[in-house]
Design brief:
Layout (H helix, E strand, L loop, with lengths): L12 H8 L15 H8 L1
């Protein structure tokens, strides 16, 4: 896996690995999902 270099307010790979396991992988119905990492970076 390539190491992701981002801005200071973006999640690191280690942080993302820790959080991503708590997100649903498949959601039925509703709007199409956007990139979870992008959404969480916006919240942080």
């Amino acid at each position: 896996m390539m190491k992701r270099v981002g801005r200071r307010y973006e999640l690191s790979d280690v942080e993302w690995d820790a959080l991503s396991r708590y997100l649903p992988s498949v959601v039925t119905g509703g709007r199409p999902r956007v990139d979870d990492r992008r959404v969480l970076n916006g919240i942080v």
